[in-house]
From TrEMBL:
It is a multi-pass membrane protein. The keyword Transmembrane applies. Keywords: Membrane, Transmembrane, Transmembrane helix. InterPro entries: PMP-22/EMP/MP20-like, PMP22/EMP/MP20/Claudin, PMP22_EMP_MP20. It comes from Seriola lalandi dorsalis. This is Epithelial membrane protein 3 (MAM blood group). It holds the Pfam family PMP22_Claudin. Belongs to the PMP-22/EMP/MP20 family. PROSITE patterns: PMP22_1. It is found in: Membrane.
Length: 165
């Protein structure tokens, strides 16, 4: 039981870290190797100074919904972890972690919705006339998709976890 508890805690922390990286870091969409777009900035590589120059993204309704859903996912997962820690200290023996699991599942669903919106509406989100086949998804987008099953599985595990001591 202790092994399951420690494993679930580590899984939760790793997933939360992946969510934070996917939400805040660059690289949701890459045009060649000189331009990167994420949820917050458009960045161009300046060869003269060997630095990245970033400007705020052009806001669209689809982009704002992806931003909001990713932030909600981080918030739900963070609340889930804090509630889990509180329940470990205050819950009576034999109690189930329903609220923790529910928050974690909501984090998974909001992350899933954000990834779906970005996948199917990337043309509107990127606001670019270029051919999308010349770009590719970045590692943050892939991290966001990897978080979906991890969040949902950990949410289900929390619901079935019973406090023994």
């Amino acid at each position: 039981m202790v092994f399951l508890l420690v494993s679930l805690t580590v899984l939760h922390l790793v997933t939360l870290a992946m969510l934070l990286i996917a939400t805040l870091e660059k690289s949701w969409w890459i045009w060649a190797d000189t331009e990167i777009r994420d949820l917050w900035y458009n960045c161009f590589h300046d060869n003269a100074t060997k630095t990245w120059l970033c400007a705020a993204t052009n806001e669209s309704d689809w982009l704002q919904s992806v931003q909001a859903l990713m932030v909600l996912s981080v918030v739900f997962s963070s609340i889930s972890f804090l509630v889990f820690l509180g329940q470990l200290l205050t819950m009576s023996k034999g109690g189930l972690f329903y609220f923790t699991g529910l928050c974690q599942a909501f984090a998974g669903f909001t992350d899933f919705a954000a990834c779906l919106i970005f996948t199917f509406h990337r043309k509107e989100i990127l606001n670019d006339s270029r051919d999308l086949s010349k770009g590719r998804f970045g590692y943050c987008f892939i991290l966001a998709w990897l978080c979906v099953p991890l969040l949902l599985v950990s949410g289900v595990l929390y619901v079935h976890l019973r406090k023994k001591q």
